[in-house]
Automatic annotation (TrEMBL):
Molecular function via GO: S-adenosylmethionine-dependent methyltransferase activity
Tagged with keyword Heme: no
The protein's enzyme class: transferase
Example GO biological process: methylation
The protein's name in its UniProt record: Class I SAM-dependent methyltransferase
UniProt-listed SUPFAM superfamilies: S-adenosyl-L-methionine-dependent methyltransferases (SSF53335)
Enzyme Commission number, as recorded: 2.1.1.-
PANTHER family given in the database record: METHYLTRANSFERASE (PTHR42912)
Annotated CDD domains: AdoMet_MTases (cd02440)
Pfam families: Methyltransf_11
Keyword tags: Methyltransferase, Transferase
Chain ranges of the Methyltransferase type domain: 50-142
Source domain of life: Bacteria
Length: 269
């Protein structure tokens, strides 16, 4: 992409894709994302790093300042094209791929960074399985999730600290939790700091630093194409569900007609 087409693409996709270095996004939102990548960079000095769901690549570029090498993966081809065009470097590469099933060698990654990712997946445990598979025995995973934001057009899971603890349990011998807040509003402390689990519901986002990995080698790489097929249609189906749900609230008869139409379309496939 050229600079002009980069800007046009980013503006057209700003609901799901962001570049925290671009001023078209609110300052508080940009800083929230930059803070967590700067936090993760402390674990990456001289390391082989995977940025799982790297998005537009701005965070991978932050990690690459201290890392030996950073690989960023994202399921969206145009997003990877943007990342390569703007943030590719000698020690930073970007590839199209599913975070749940990568082509990365087992035990080969020193640090996995995966921010605001798992709530977008169809199966959170599958993402954790892959993280634990690719991490080296002494590796570290730095993860983040939005905290109690509710479901949305793009979030299939509504995380809180209890759900995050549940998917990490048994995979890591040690997990340290942090808050990640964009402001001091609502009794929150701006920035990133150690999380008091008794006050976890007040955090805007949650960050987990995970170590002492319990390696998992159950990945079946033959399912890569299956995962891509699932993702190709999942957002369309989700949007269709939301439209039908809205119709139910406003017109029960119209909802019934829409259900019949949807069933015909599914059968036709």
């Amino acid at each position: 992409m050229s600079n002009g087409s980069n800007e046009e693409w980013l503006d057209a996709n700003r609901a799901l894709r962001m570049d925290a270095n671009e001023s078209i996004f609110p300052e508080s939102r940009r800083q929230l994302h930059l803070d967590r990548y700067e936090f993760a960079a402390k674990y990456c000095t001289g390391k082989i790093v995977l940025d799982a769901a790297c998005g537009t690549g701005y965070g991978s570029a932050i990690l690459a300042k201290s890392a030996k090498h950073v690989t960023g993966i994202d399921i969206d081809e145009m997003t990877i094209e943007y990342a390569r065009s703007k943030y590719g470097s000698d020690n930073t590469t970007f590839n199209v791929g599913c975070v749940e099933l990568t082509e990365i060698q087992s035990d080969s990654i020193d640090v996995v960074v995966s921010f605001e990712t798992v709530e977008h997946t169809l199966c959170p445990n599958s993402h954790m399985i892959e993280i634990s598979r690719v991490l080296s025995p002494s590796g570290v995973a730095v993860l983040s999730v939005p905290n109690r934001w509710g479901l949305s057009d793009h979030h299939f899971w509504d995380f809180d600290v209890r759900m995050l603890q549940r998917i990490l349990k048994g995979r890591f011998g040690r997990v340290d939790y942090y808050y990640n807040n964009s402001s001091n509003d609502n009794n929150r402390k701006k920035g990133i700091g150690p999380l008091n689990l008794e006050e976890a519901d007040d955090a805007e986002c949650l960050v987990a630093v995970c170590s002492d990995v319990n390696a998992d080698h159950t990945g079946a790489h033959g399912y890569q194409s299956v995962l891509h097929e699932i993702y190709d249609g999942v957002f369309e189906r989700h949007q269709e569900f939301l439209r039908l749900q809205s119709e139910l609230k406003s017109d029960a008869h119209g909802f019934t007609r829409s259900i019949k139409k949807m069933i015909k379309r599914v059968i036709a496939r």
